[in-house]
Amino acid sequence: MRQYHTIDLAQRSINTETLKGDSLVRAGRYHIAKTLNDMGVAKVDPLGPDNPLIFSAGPLAGTNFSNANRLSVGCKSPLTGGIKEANAGGNFAFALGQLEIAGFTLTGQSDDWVMIYFKKGGDVEFLDAKDYMGEGNFKTAERLHERFGKKISIGLCSLVGEYQGLMAGIAFSDVDMRPSRLAARGGVGAVMGSKKVKAIIADLDRMPSMHDRKQVMQAVKSYRKQLEEQPAIRTFQEQGTAAVGDYTNTVGGIPVRNFSHGQATDTSGEERFKLGGDYLRELNLSRGGDTTHACMPGCIIQCSNVYHDKDGNEVVSPVEYETIGLMGTNCGLEDPDDLAALNWEANDLGVDTIELGATIGVLMDAGKGSFGDPSYMKSVVDEMRAGSDEGRLYASGTQRVGEALDVSRIPVIKGQAISAYDPRVIEVTGISMQMTAQGADHTAGNLPQYDSKGKPAAELVEASLDLQALCATTDSLGFCIFGRSVTLTQQDFILQALKDAVDVELPADFFPALGRETLELEHQFNRDAGFTDKDDDLPEFFYEEELAPSNQKARFRASDLKSATESWWG
What we know:
By secondary structure, this protein is α+β, with helices and mostly antiparallel strands. The protein is built from 23 helices and 17 strands. Helix 11 (321-328) packs across helix 12, helix 11 runs parallel beside helix 13 and helix 13 runs parallel beside helix 16 (398-404).
């Protein structure tokens, strides 16, 4: 059993209920979609008091079950106007699990800036936040650790979130106390800012009670062993997510100079792609950096890294593929050191690197700066940090900036920046980004290596939807999708582990059923919010412009996807 808190910020009151069994398992993304629909918030102002902000941890949170300590955060997105679930690694879900808290919902808005402190023993305190306003995330985290000690985890509303910049995420502690694991997408940090919640603090305690602790511990060991046998996991351990960059650059599907080209470096000769996993690993190891780093307790995938400069000093953690694609190649950067320094700035500001990189790419396309100029990128970040009128426009995201500057190439779907997979070449992932209710989000169903050339929409849509359902289940259980080579293929094993953890009998078809139900709830929310099938179209330039070097155009519009979707839903 675990506790779930509904917190009224205006009254500073807490209603607590006890969850068990099936209610604990149906967490994360499912819980967010179900709650938002039940509360009828599809038409509310996303930055108003009626938009709840939901935090949900999975049933294995608080244990060392590898990659099962992912935290889901959800609300109506102020960026897209639709439903949003953004999830993050780090140890915040781990801390909630150890406190035997399944999650909490923030309702209403506080009159003054506040911090919420979940303490060992069950107490929850409201603390004055005025002394922590207007500073970067790293300084705030440092001061909070000085005050509360090392055995806490922190969730932060950044200074961009304070003024409700729409690319603001919520920054959570990693295992080394860096506030660098973001629930980044959709403007969830702006919603936290609208509620005047500066920080959420949770004590780290001990492994939570389990229905059958011995069996759970055996499952932890067995799951680790199964993961270690997977080639994909070994690649993540060696190169992290940056390894994806080597592939997308080779096939011509990485965004370059605001999605105007698909290959940053032609590696057919002897030239090396310096923003890919192979080169970054070699460079970082030569400097004493860490290329095998776990973002959450117990995770053996260890796809994170700690990037060092030429003098052996830490610059940032982590440098991940999406940041490489959007803040790197999409903005014309070639030097990993330039990217790492800007990545640190984004983490300190607590903003989505996908949205930031896409926004800067649009600014460069509009002639406001030159592609490949890190000093211009730093000036954009500086304006956002200062909260100037110009900086607040930048912080509103790619679509709003592109429209304000009358740019023809604005790479968004449903108002959210497209991830680092050009949909003209990496088609199934592109279809997932088109179809998901979440806005352009590759994590909804990413199949970058699927051979889609010449294949009809029906086949690609089926592949996308099958994976979308399973990813929705993964997000609903608090798992990281990078373990899916085991999580999604050994479902009986996972169902038994859940039974041992929370004493619940789950049907054999639980995984696909939960995923489908989650997708249905999300699409229902967006329909209620006013979205139509037309919102699944890509921006027009993807259909009109051939992408070099493959010279491909986008093939599928919303109408093509809809006709192919109907048979899947039955």
